[in-house]
Amino acid sequence: MLNALRSFFDRHLAPQPEETPAESNHRTQLAAAVLLVEVVRSDHDISDTERQAVLGSVARKFGLSPEEARELLELAEQESNSAHDLYQFTSRIDASFDLGQKLRLLEELWRAAYSDDRLHEYEEHLIRRIADLLHLSHSQFIGAKLRALSEKQKSSS
């Protein structure tokens, strides 16, 4: 028990070495990818369509090659499996992204949720929690949802 507490405090309270800008950028990309993974996993049914949507999102958002996007997705899935909460990811994004970047990420979360042609209530609830943790307003949350839905409807017709 004491070792677990000591380990926790060492990880979270010990001074951290300074990150290089590249390391910080990679960690922020990973945090965004984890949130995308969390959204598509929230309904307990990850379709191939959802997986492809997440791959497309990270490739588009970060200018990654298909191979780099796959590697990032694999890392994100590993991080998601061991994560205890969303805060460790949203706090990094909140500190690193400006408002426009946060809104674009929110739209990507909605696109991922809509990618299987149905929005599950768990997906919507999780995106709401993420929006709150990113300090986005309800109107920004709804605006991103409507933009993603409109885009989905245009591509379906």
Which characteristics define this entry?
single chain; 157 residues; mainly alpha; TerB-like; 78% helix; 0% strand; globular
Number of domains: 1
* Portion of residues within helices: over 70%
Content-based structural category = mainly alpha
Per DSSP E runs of 2 or more residues, the count of β-strands stands at 0
Q: Profile the largest sheet.
A: none
CATH topology: TerB-like
Reading the helices and strands in chain order gives HHHHHHHH
- Based on the coordinates given, report the CATH architecture: Orthogonal Bundle
Q: Shape from CA axes?
A: globular
Helix segment tally: 8
Tell me what portion of residues adopts beta-strand conformation: under 5%
Rounded to the nearest angstrom, the radius of gyration is: 16 Å
CATH superfamily: TerB-like
Unreliable stretches? none
Q: Look at the structure and give the CATH class.
A: Mainly Alpha
> How far do the termini sit from each other?
58 Å
